Amino acid sequence: MCHRVNDKGSRYGPDLSTIGASRGRGGGPNISPTGTAAGDPKGLELAMLDPDAEVALANRSVRVVTKDGTVITGRLLNHDNFSVQFIDTQSKLRAFMKSDLKEFAVLTKSPMPSYQDKLNAQEVADLVSYLISLKGPSKP
Asked: How many Å apart are CA 112 and CA 3, to the nearest integer?
């Protein structure tokens, strides 16, 4: 599992605990961790069936190659002229000085696989319904 819901799951993918929230404080739509309008069934469906259609900047992946040739990928957290920080595929926080790397690249493709040919229409609808139900912790 690449996503996290209510403190369970991997930190590699975006946290989906509040993906079903439909309105922000200002009355406009929230933008979800996946880059789609939170609470938007069509946007959620598109994210599952064509994850490369829209990859939010906050969810871009990074690929680094160390000077010894080790390749490491992960979800980009931050980078500047000198360093890069990301969460690798084992949910481990990684940080490198760019001067210590042979290569550094921010990837534009989503690491999430498409579910286009893996889920039938009912399974997609059920998953979208579940995601829409994720509104975060109840407030008293």
From this structure: 10
